[in-house]
Design goal:
about 150 residues; 3 helices; elongated
Length: about 150
């Protein structure tokens, strides 16, 4: 009888460890997949704004930017916002933001990783000058703020 109990306990522990291993592998895969989506879309948005600055020869304002270019990047719960403002020093700047609701922990981790890779990126619950409802995560990058 004790051999049967030991066998059942061993199988149970083995099943628990296998399930945990499968979950952590799935979690890592989802985090990497979401990171790829966020980083690619965010970089494309930043590149677009940078190119607009070069084309115009000045810091673009929100009216200079095409909303469709940002809408094309959206998907998987990620939305992109942009705007322009005047900094503390009186100089204009434009900001680009990616934002998503936090439905899974890997979403926040992916956003944090993107923020860590680009110096000067702000990480927080909302974009600059734009708030949403519910728990969310956002990264904002300011271009041409001196």
């Amino acid at each position: 009888m004790s051999n049967v109990l030991i066998a059942i306990a061993t199988l149970t522990v083995g099943f628990i460890l296998a399930t945990y291993g499968a979950y952590t592998s799935y979690y890592s895969l989802k985090r990497a997949e979401y990171f790829d989506r966020v980083s690619t879309g965010f970089e494309l948005a930043v590149v677009y704004v940078t190119e607009m600055e070069q084309d115009l020869g000045r810091v673009p304002v929100a009216a200079d930017l095409d909303p469709a270019r940002f809408a094309d990047l959206e998907g998987h719960g990620i939305v992109y916002r942009y705007g322009s403002a005047v900094g503390w020093n009186g100089k204009p700047y434009v900001w680009v933001c990616a934002r998503a609701p936090v439905k899974q922990p890997y979403i926040e981790e992916a956003f944090q990783k993107v923020a860590d890779q680009r110096t000067g990126t702000l990480f927080g619950p909302n974009c600059q000058n734009w708030t949403g409802s519910g728990a969310s995560v956002a990264i904002t990058y300011r271009l041409n703020e001196v």
